[in-house]
Amino acid sequence: MAKQNVAEQFVDILVRAGVKRLYGVVGDSLNPVVDAVRRNAAIDWIHVRHEETAAFAAGAEAQVTGKLAACAGSCGPGNLHLINGLYDAHRSMAPVLALASHIPSSEIGLGYFQETHPDRLFSECSHYSELISSPKQMPRLLQTAIQHAVGRSGVSVVSLPGDIAAEPAPEKAAETAIVTSRPTVRPGDAEIDRLVEMIDEADKVTLFCGSGTAGAHAEVMEFAGKIKSPVGHALRGKEWIQYDNPYDVGMSGLLGYGAAYEATHECDLLILLGTDFPYNAFLPNDVKIAQVDVRPENLGRRSKLDLAVWGDAKETLRCLIPRVKPKQNRRFLDKMLKKHADALEGVVKAYTRKVDRHVPIHPEYVAAVLDEVADDDAVFTIDTGMCNVWGARYISPNGRRRIIGSFSHGSMANALPMAIGAQFTDRGRQVISMSGDGGFSMLMGDFLTLVQYNLPVKVVLFNNSSLSMVELEMMVAGLPAYGTENKNPDFAAVARACGAHGVRVEKPKQLAGALKDAFRHKGPALVDVVTDPNALSIPPKISAEMVTGFALSASKIVLEGGVGRMVQMARSNLRNVPRP
Question: pLDDT of 223-236, one tens digit each?
Answer without folding.
Answer: 999 999 999 999 99
